[in-house]
Amino acid sequence: MKRLKEKISGLQELRKPSLTIKWAFASSFFIFVVFTIFAVTTYQSSIALFVEKERKNAEQVTDEIASRLANSTNELSLVSTYRNLTNSTRGGSRLYDRTSTLEGILMKIDPFISELGRSEMTLYVYNLEEKLVFKTREKNVQLTQTTNKSPSVVTIDGLTGFILVRPIYSIETGEKTGYAQTFYELTSFYAIRNRLLIILIVLEIISFIVSSVLGYLLSSYYLKPLKVLRDTMEQIQKNPQADIHTPKIDTNDELADMAEIFNRMLDRMRSYTEQQEQFVEDVSHELRTPVAIIEGHLNMLNRWGKNDPEILEESLDASMQEISRMKTLVQEMLDLSRAEQVDVYYSNETTQAKEVVHQVFNNFKMLYPDFVFILDDDLASEKLLQIYRNHFEQILIILLDNAVKYSTDRKEVHLSLSKNSKEVEIVIQDFGEGISEGDISKIFHRFYRVDKARARTKGGNGLGLSIAKQLLESYKGKIMVQSSLGQGTIFRMYIPIVKEALELQK
What is the rounded average pLDDT of the residues 228-234? Predict the structure, then answer.
């Protein structure tokens, strides 16, 4: 049943649209909306311009007709209408009667008449009795009104168009001679409009399909690094212990930065995990001996030693000594663990170099009066270091404490402070036992002691130098060592400078 639920859950996850499809759909929808707005705006603007053009054309023709018919001094008739429209002086009117049309012959007369010959334009001329005396089409239409009529859209016999009316007044007499009525069909306009609408719809469908395909291809290309990141995470989820990293992404953008940050974060998490495991192993290993010693003394006391005062006192002293060493060991292990996580808790901490070095130097002079401590301070002004004050003090104490512990006949320690490029250099030199060349590379390892027997008698657990090195590296510093057996050891450490203390005060 559980497996079935997992399969169903997996199928449901598969049904969810991927980010690639979502991005493709979003981009396609955005392009569709933009193109629709553009198409509608273009369509409406084009239609409005076309209608306006046709309206002005109809007005111009009608006004020209009224202007030519105004040359007549008498009431309008077929002959006078024809002569005035064509500016003709020919007499005779028997070729034209009330039902004659001008279609087919007017185009040969002048450009204006060619407008009357267009299939869209129909002219009707009426006399004062509102009777039709002239027309350019077969169909008869009643006069709609006797006053001036601006262009308006009407439907006549199933045809839609502009209709205009102009009362005709004689130029010479000023008397009304008749009426001119024009009807401008918009059939071709509607045909063009419908065709334009169909073209825009087809183009919109094509653009949606093309934008969907291109959006999917582009989203697949640009989201490929994200898919690589996802696949890497899935592999890590299946096998957390595997040494897997996200492949290098050469897109040189935010996704490449994300992959690099993810790898760094992954390394840090693995480092913390390894540190935790190492911590547990080290503690269990180092605590085994003192626990065994305490257990042995307690067993002995439990069996017979508790009745012997000397054995009792010896066992208690040994147990207390081991407990004290265990406390020191645990504290050092905690210090080491915190040193490995400096970048999380103390990344922005700063410390004044001269003040701390002088303070620790004076403390050691007071604690070890039988030692000679010499300080060479070559810093002309205070320097601000990129390190937490307590950690800086801890490093100095570890190195000076080792110098004191492993000194022999010459109880002398030199401490120098100077500036080197963008770092402060601190040198601690002793004249004690020294370290062999084979041991120098190992002294920073955890729990490593050059001479374990002697180190144990001096209270060392082999963690001091590991803590110092880890702290310095966490603050982008470094430590180096030079030593010769029987002549002494020199530790050099370098810590980055943040700013001049005087500059900070300003």
Answer: 80
pLDDT digits (tens, 9 = 90+) for 374-386: 999 999 888 999 8
CA dist 25 and 211 (Å) reads: 9
Q: Which range marks the domain in which residue 396 is found?
A: 346-505
Q: Which of 317, 338, 359 is the last residue of a domain?
A: 338
437 lies in a domain? yes
Co-location of 140 and 90 in the same domain: yes
Q: Within this chain, do residues 368 and 493 fall inside the same structural domain, yes or no?
A: yes
Residues 360 and 394 sit within 8 Å (Cβ to Cβ): no
pLDDT one-digit tens code per residue, 102-131: 444 433 445 666 666 677 788 889 998 889
Take residue 35 and report the two structure tokens written for it.
Answer: 């193109």
Are both 381 and 458 inside the same structural domain?
yes
Taking only the tens place, the pLDDT of each residue in 271-292 is 767 766 766 676 676 667 677 7
Estimate the crossing angle of helix 224-238 against helix 254-303, to 10 degrees.
10
Total domains in the chain come to 3
pLDDT confidence of residue 95: 40
> In this structure, are residues 395 and 351 in contact, taking their beta carbons and an 8 Å threshold?
no
Q: Determine the average pLDDT of the residues in 335-359.
A: 78
Q: How many Å apart are CA 56 and CA 148, to the nearest integer?
A: 16
Q: Are residues 310 and 388 part of one domain?
A: no
Q: Give the phi and the psi of residue 137 in degrees, each rounded to 5.
A: -135, 165
Taking residues 167-192, what's their average pLDDT?
86
In angstroms, what CA-CA distances link 299 with 290, 319, 357?
14, 12, 48
Question: Cα(496)–Cα(104) distance, rounded to whole angstroms?
Answer: 101
Helix 464-474 × helix 309-339 angle, to 10°: 10
pLDDT at position 270 is 76
